[in-house]
């Protein structure tokens, strides 16, 4: 019982242990340390660009743009090739037509062409 | 007086927003003890508290534009300090756990544990022993209770100020303080019983 009373008294005393506490003072060189840290943390332009590009959102957006551009170029190229092929075929038809016109005009006889 | 202080605060903040280093120097000089003392109360280690105080002011310099003036500048500073202190503690705990695991695998035999008898330099001389026991008990409190108790008892903030910093109501702070006191009694009882 006496022991319990002693412990209770100690607890009460401990709970008042912070009464009248004074604010602890920081070291006087804190400002120069802070400035030193700030200078170390200052990034160069290229570091800033690098860290900006390495952000997941920016990196994903960049990749998506490159992918979209690639697909665009690919489709564009395919459609250009198709268009060229069609144009080529049409040109071929035209050539054939013009050749036959010339042939008919000049009475060109292909069948009885003298072979060398 | 309070009004003038608020005005000075606003002027200093605006000057810092414009990149004025003299204003930053004044800000550090004005609030460094407040920041250091709060961090010291939470992490209970002078070196760590100094490190945290530096981190706090670096963040103040870098993110001053995010301070909109909705609260007092000191309230904003308290919040940064508490966040940094708790982050620091978590990092330290992770390191301790990692060191413990490493020691289990025989890679490192020594686990660094800080001594429980932290002595706050501002404690009245004849209360040093009681305060050390109380600080050891405070370290065992849940986070919210620990912050409320430290801000009120170590920094001397009123319940209203504590509630502003913790973004809660005064009655919540009263409740946190009440529960903190109950828990501290339990922790101190265990401590004194073990001590004999």
Could you say which overall geometry of chain A the principal axes of the C-alpha atoms support? rod-shaped
Query: In terms of per-residue confidence, which ranges of chain B show pLDDT below 50 for 5 or more consecutive residues?
Result: 108-115
Cα-based radius of gyration of chain B, to the nearest Å: 19 Å
Total count of strands of chain B: 0
Q: Which structural class do you get from the secondary structure elements of chain B?
A: mainly alpha
Shape of chain B: globular
Tell me how many strands of chain A there are.
0
Task: Report the average pLDDT across residues of chain B.
Answer: 90
- The arrangement of helices and strands of chain A along the chain is HHHH
- Please summarize the sheet with the most strands of chain B: none
Cα-to-Cα separation, first versus last residue of chain A:
137 Å
Oligomer: heterodimer
For the largest beta-sheet of chain A, the strand count, sense and barrel status come to:
none
Percent of residues in helices of chain A comes to: over 70%
Give the helix tally of chain B: 8
Structure, explained:
- Chain A has 116 residues and is mainly alpha-helical.
- Helices cover 73% and strands 0% of the residues of chain A.
- Chain A has helices at 2-15, 30-41, 45-53, 56-105.
- Chain A is rod-shaped.
- Chain B is an all-alpha fold.
- In chain B, 73% of the residues lie in helices and 0% in strands.
- Chain B contains eight helices and no strands.
- At the A-B interface, helix 1 and helix 2 of A face helix 2, helix 3, helix 5 and helix 8 of B.
Gist?
Chain A is mainly alpha-helical and 116 residues long. Chain A contains four helices and no strands.
Outline the secondary-structure elements.
The complex is a heterodimer of chains A (116) and B (196).
Chain A: H1 2-15, H2 30-41, H3 45-53, H4 56-105
Chain B: H1 2-17, H2 21-43, H3 46-62, H4 73-104, H5 128-138, H6 143-153, H7 159-165, H8 170-195
Helix pairs in contact in B: 1-2, 2-3, 2-4, 3-4, 5-8, 6-8, 7-8
